[in-house]
Design brief:
By secondary structure, the chain is α+β, with helices and mostly antiparallel strands. Helix content is 30%, strand content 25%. It has 10 helices and 11 strands. A hairpin with a 5-residue loop joins strand 10 and strand 11.
């Protein structure tokens, strides 16, 4: 068993009108594309179960969906148009990546986004040879838990936390980011603990965000809504409302009188199943007042529409 750590870079249209105000006039088809993030670079490093490097892979992918490289992407990644001119096709790049992966290997990435986009790009190109996408490890989730953090760690913060020396000019290069991710993994690798984080079926993992939470109806019957201390029903003052990436509700426990925030994230699997993740947390009076204010502000804004 080996670990293949993958990192990707993408081109997209986010904020591109700031650089090219007439882009949708010049390329009207871009207003209705079915691929938000087009893969333009693949990087990967393979480690054995002793964390020793076995192989590396890097390739630029020549874009065919978005004909113009977003200048914002160039600023972040350092990738230029000339780098992509002689790039591989998506099919060639993914095929070469798959050749790095043997049966029983664990595919890893920092968060699930890269795996999602491999599948999304494959769907666009009608590329069906993804049988190698099997065992998977989300190294962001694993690192966040192992390092005892409450909020998801960025790769940069994980590197800083573990005091790993970083050349910031080399970040956002697909291979370099894969190598830095491997360095984080080496420091916190625990074969026994790791087993609890390996996903056996990528297509049924909760990976895709619900894009418009304001239009989504939360199924309350799927929730526990219990005090994390007393395990009795929370007496909500404000019911669930969408806030950024999740739904939140706040209230009190009738038994211990603690103030509680109940947070629910909703994700979809590639097979279409919706998965709820609910976390109820005791908060102090200052946090309670702060969330009350934010909820009122959001409610007022929603009521205007």
């Amino acid at each position: 068993m080996s670990f293949v750590i993958i990192d990707l870079e993408f081109n997209n249209l986010e904020g591109i009108h700031k650089y090219y105000p007439d882009i949708f006039t010049k390329y009207p088809s871009l207003e209705d594309i079915d691929l938000d993030n087009e893969i333009i670079e693949i990087g990967a490093i393979k480690l054995d179960n002793y964390m020793k490097p076995l192989n590396e892979f890097k390739a630029y992918i020549k874009p065919s969906v978005i004909p113009i490289l977003n200048p914002k992407i160039s600023e972040i990644t350092g990738i230029m148009e000339k780098n992509l001119e002689n790039g591989l096709s998506f099919q060639e790049g993914i095929q070469k990546l798959s050749e790095l992966i043997d049966d029983g290997d664990i595919i890893c990435s920092w968060a699930k986004d890269d795996i999602i986009e491999i599948i999304n790009n494959a769907i666009h190109y009608k590329y069906e040879d993804l049988n190698w996408l099997k065992n998977y490890l989300d190294l962001q989730e694993y690192s966040t838990k192992i390092l005892g953090k409450k909020k998801s760690l960025s790769l940069k913060n994980a590197l800083e936390d573990l005091k790993i020396k970083v050349d910031s000019s080399k970040l956002h290069d697909a291979l370099n980011d894969a190598i830095y991710t491997a360095e984080v993994f080496k420091r916190i690798y625990n074969s026994r603990v790791l087993k609890n984080y390996i996903i056996k079926d990528i297509y049924n993992m909760p990976a895709m965000d619900i894009k418009n939470l304001t239009q989504y109806k939360l199924d309350i019957d799927k929730l526990k809504c219990k005090c994390p201390k007393c395990n009795i029903d929370i007496d909500f003052e404000y019911d669930f409302i969408p806030m950024k990436w999740r739904f939140i509700a706040i209230g009190r426990c009738k038994k211990c009188n603690n103030r509680i925030i109940d947070e629910v994230t909703v994700k979809k699997t590639f097979s279409g199943e919706e998965v709820y993740n609910e976390i109820a947390t005791i908060i102090d009076e200052v946090e309670y007042i702060d969330y009350s204010y934010k909820i009122k502000k959001i409610k007022n804004k929603l009521n205007k529409y």
